[in-house]
Design goal:
Layout: H1 3-28, E1 39-45, H2 52-71, E2 80-86, H3 91-103, E3 109-112, H4 116-129, E4 132-135, E5 150-152, H5 157-170, E6 175-181, H6 184-199, E7 203-210, H7 218-226, E8 231-235, H8 238-251, E9 256-259, H9 274-277, E10 282-286, H10 293-305, H11 315-332, H12 337-348, E11 352-353, E12 356-357, E13 371-377, E14 380-388, E15 391-394
Parallel strand pairs: 1-2, 1-3, 3-4, 4-5, 6-7, 6-8, 8-9, 9-10
Antiparallel strand pairs: 10-13, 11-12, 13-14, 14-15
């Protein structure tokens, strides 16, 4: 080989070696947090459809957590990014959205869903893929057995059904009707209410399960009006409820209504005629620990981000679900669904969130929940009682 070519070959070898060394040095360096891959947390909420009035407020709760985490340096030294998908309050669309989060975005943990029917539809997909799902709002008793990767930061309706039965009984009612949305949430709560109400000596004389989105419920409401029920246990979502309650008023339905948390929000009064139609209604919803430092911390952060708003229903539980997932990822030391699942049980022990103690049992359910009783008065909801440690205390006017 001529000498010039030898020198050229030696120079090329040296250059390649130098470049390889530089590459190895760069690979060994720790990237700044901003340059590392983000920690993605999926968010699966009803931003359209029947529960849309609640979904947007819930998303804001997750956004508060996202900002707080990133202001503190992220998780595992990496920025947290929420990947948001809309369930449209539809189990089929929730499944499509979950598949996108898992198979396209590659998330290992999801906050959601809200409606129990959506959560139960998505649960098998999360189980199959080893992805954690933490619901901030799904209360159906069926969620308890939905799988090892399925958690929730609200209590099962095995509790809320008892609260509603206690509420009806405490006021002296002995004959009740149930008027519930025909899905896992409504039917599950109807069953628990019936069991508890009848165990207290009452009788459920009429059971109505309505189809959502139908738009005309006069036939069902006439059956209710003409029955001998004294009280109606009502489970619904905002859009349907606004139609049902307006038509009930038009038809002269006079029974006392008590409702579950699906409509326990002042956003109901944004619908025409609801102040009049809901007047005197009693509603139950999970209580937040509003006098705790954890809730005040959440509230202050929320108002900093949304200065003209108050947190809507389940904004605080969505915040808690997001923060718990982030803490579990940190505890696991890895962005891996199985490790996040195992870590959730560990970090939940004695965990105090904005909505109180979030300790999980072996099924991923929180072990305790207080409730508040609200009353619709002049287009607003005022506190009318509490259910704490199994004891109902009312302050009704």
């Amino acid at each position: 080989m001529p000498g010039g070519k030898v020198y050229l070959l030696i120079a090329m070898v040296i250059a390649v070696g130098f470049m390889a060394g530089c590459t190895q040095e760069k690979q060994g360096e720790k990237k700044p947090a901003a340059e590392q891959e983000e920690i993605k947390i999926g968010v699966l909420l009803p931003l359209s459809g029947n529960l849309a009035p609640f979904g947007e407020g819930m998303l804001k709760g997750a956004r508060v957590a996202e900002r707080e985490l990133n202001d503190a340096g992220g998780v595992l030294g990496r920025k947290v990014r929420l990947v948001v998908e809309d369930t449209a309050t539809d189990p089929a669309k929730a499944v499509e959205a979950a598949q996108k989060l898992i198979n396209v975005d590659g998330v290992q943990a999801i906050v959601g869903a809200a409606a129990s029917s959506a959560t139960l539809a998505v649960a098998p997909i999360c189980e199959e893929n080893g992805v954690v799902l933490v619901s901030p709002a799904s209360t159906s008793p069926l969620v308890t057995d939905a799988g090892d990767y399925i958690f929730r930061v609200v209590a099962s309706d095995t509790l809320q059904g008892k609260v509603l039965a206690d509420l009806a009984t405490e006021q002296g009612y002995r004959r009740a009707a149930t008027f519930v949305i025909n899905n896992d949430y409504g039917v599950g709560l109807q069953d628990v209410f019936t069991e508890n109400f009848e165990a207290k000596g009452g009788r459920v004389v009429l059971r109505i399960q309505y189809d959502p989105g139908k738009g005309d419920y006069r036939t069902e409401l006439q059956r209710l009006r003409d029955s001998d029920a004294e009280v109606v246990m009502f489970v619904s979502y905002p859009e349907d409820a606004s139609v049902i309650l307006r038509q009930a008023m038009e038809l002269g339905v006079e029974q006392q209504w008590i409702a579950a948390e699906g409509i326990a929000s002042e956003e109901m009064f944004n619908y025409a005629g609801m102040a009049e139609a809901m007047e005197g209604m009693l509603l139950t919803k999970p209580a937040s620990a509003t006098d705790s430092p954890e809730y005040r911390h959440f509230y202050e952060l929320f108002r900093q981000m949304y200065p003209d708003e108050e947190p809507g229903i389940y904004a605080d539980t969505t915040y808690d679900a997001t923060m718990m997932i982030a803490r579990a990822i940190e505890q696991a030391g890895s962005y891996d669904g199985e490790k996040i699942k195992d870590a959730l049980y560990q970090i939940s022990k004695g965990y105090k969130g904005a909505t109180g103690d979030k300790t999980f049992d072996e099924n991923g359910d929180i072990i305790y929940q207080d409730y508040v009783v609200l009353k619709a008065v002049n287009g607003t909801l005022v506190e009318a009682g509490t259910w704490k440690r199994g004891r109902l205390v009312l302050q009704l006017q």
